């Protein structure tokens, strides 16, 4: 009787344990894939918002023909974050143009 239990029930028990572990591993991989998808979407969204903000600042301060120092520093921070998130080089020209603008207009009282 003991040999019957050890032969068949232990095999069945280990089969159930293995099936349970396989299910858990599959579920973990599914959650990891979902998390990667969400992370990619968040990174893409943040990159788009940074690009939009930098383009908006560029248009605004090019019209004013000057760029305050605080905005210039903020643009540099946004640009670094944009590049770190994988942003392309389309913004390089915009940042360079803003950096070429004076911080105050000539003849403006301080």
How much β-strand is present in the residues? under 5%
Order of helices and strands: HHH
Molecular shape = rod-shaped
Task: Report the strand count.
Answer: 0
Q: By helix and strand content, what is the structural category?
A: mainly alpha
Low-confidence region ranges: none
Q: Average the pLDDT over all residues and give the rounded result.
A: 89
- SS summary, helix count: 3
- Largest sheet, if any? none
Distance between the termini: 100 Å
Helix content: over 70%
Question: What value does the Rg take, in angstroms?
Answer: 29 Å
Number of domains: 1
Descriptors for this entry?
single chain; 110 residues; mainly alpha; 80% helix; rod-shaped
Describe the overall structure.
This protein is mainly alpha-helical and 110 residues long. It has one domain. The longest helix is centred in the N-terminal third of the chain and has 63 residues. The model has no long low-confidence stretch (mean pLDDT 89).
What's the layout of helices and strands?
Layout: H1 2-64, H2 69-84, H3 92-100
Helix pairs in contact: 1-2, 1-3, 2-3
Short structural summary:
By secondary structure, the chain is mainly α.
């Amino acid at each position: 009787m003991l040999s019957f239990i050890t032969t068949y029930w232990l095999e069945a028990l280990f089969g159930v344990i293995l099936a349970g572990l396989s299910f858990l591993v599959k579920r973990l991989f599914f959650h990891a894939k979902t998390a990667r998808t969400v992370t990619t979407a968040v990174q893409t969204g943040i990159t788009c918002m940074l690009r939009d903000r930098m383009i908006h600042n560029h248009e605004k301060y090019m019209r004013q023909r000057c760029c305050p120092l605080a905005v210039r520093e903020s643009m540099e921070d946004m640009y670094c974050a944009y590049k770190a998130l994988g942003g392309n080089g389309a913004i390089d020209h915009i940042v360079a143009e803003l950096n070429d603008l004076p911080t105050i207009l000539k003849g403006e009282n301080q």
